[in-house]
Amino acid sequence: MSFCSHFLLLVISLGTVVVHNGVDGTICCAPDQWEGHMYLDYMQIFIDSNTLYLYFNGSVNVSYDYTNSRAFYTIVGTEISPLIPKPEPLNKTYIFDYKKNMQYAIDSDGSCEKSKIDQNMTRQCVQDSGILKSSGKVGDNIITDTYILTLSESFNNVRGTIQRDSCLPVHMVYLVGSDNPDSGSVFSLDVLSTVPRIKNPAIFTPPSSCLKTSRKQSNSKTSQQLETVLTEVFQKRMLYG
Ligand SMILES: *[C@@H]1O[C@H](CO)[C@@H](O)[C@H](O)[C@H]1NC(C)=O
Ligand SMILES: *[C@@H]1O[C@H](CO)[C@@H](O)[C@H](O)[C@H]1NC(C)=O
Ligand SMILES: *[C@@H]1O[C@H](CO)[C@@H](O)[C@H](O)[C@H]1NC(C)=O
Ligand SMILES: *[C@@H]1O[C@H](CO)[C@@H](O)[C@H](O)[C@H]1NC(C)=O
């Protein structure tokens, strides 16, 4: 019944039998292909001579295809800040093709921005270094485990909750400090309706507007920061590093 059954390894250590359904060095790995809906809250706070904040909320449809080295997400949301005159909508689709090392960002008007990816795709696993913090249940008696994870030097103390059976993500939250002790950001992600398959592989084909050479579009600063966070979380490390 395990989606990760082909990773199933029986590791015999110190006379005890430990079942790992991840690969070596991992607690478990999510299926190589899955889709889900995410709800995202992202907030940055600067406590300076002026206290400022940026808040972004929205929903994300994600398709993750490690088998074919590609990923897709559409993000629809709104940015709010006293720094901008009115709420700023964001509606963008991202396609990552790790075989061609290309990333496509498609705006709601159809325009496409291409750039090179300089990362390899990572399999989504909870690393052995994850510290089990608590267990619980959600939905229809789905058992969850919550780990404290370190994804990278700047993304440490990440709290990742997964479904124990499938290792699919459920929730993730992290707080990122900054050089200024009173500033930082909060990133919170709920993952719903995950299924261990890709319904429509055609979503990974970039639209024809991506075949043309395109000029780099100027994004707002938050949109750039959000993209950095999303790229780090969804692509480089996805949810658990
Ligand atoms: C985002 O936040 C705004 C303002 O608080 C709210 O009106 C809106 O419904 C929220 N959107 C989502 C998708 O949660
Ligand atoms: C996300 O997926 C849902 C359900 O499949 C769909 O109704 C919705 O239109 C999708 N949103 C975007 C922005 O693609
Ligand atoms: C986002 O843009 C797509 C077109 O790329 C459009 O079909 C969709 O309705 C837009 N969604 C929202 C919530 O504006
Ligand atoms: C990606 O993987 C290839 C092949 O394993 C390796 O040569 C390359 O250094 C990796 N690139 C990065 C950025 O890690």
TrEMBL record:
Family matches, as Pfam families: Ependymin
Domain of life: Eukaryota
Entry annotated with the keyword Signal: yes
Keyword match Zinc: no
GO biological process: cell-matrix adhesion
InterPro entries: Ependymin
Signal sequence range: 1-22
Keyword annotations from UniProtKB, A to Z: Signal
GO cellular component, one term: lysosome
GO molecular function, one term: calcium ion binding
Protein known as: Uncharacterized protein
Organism name: Mytilus galloprovincialis
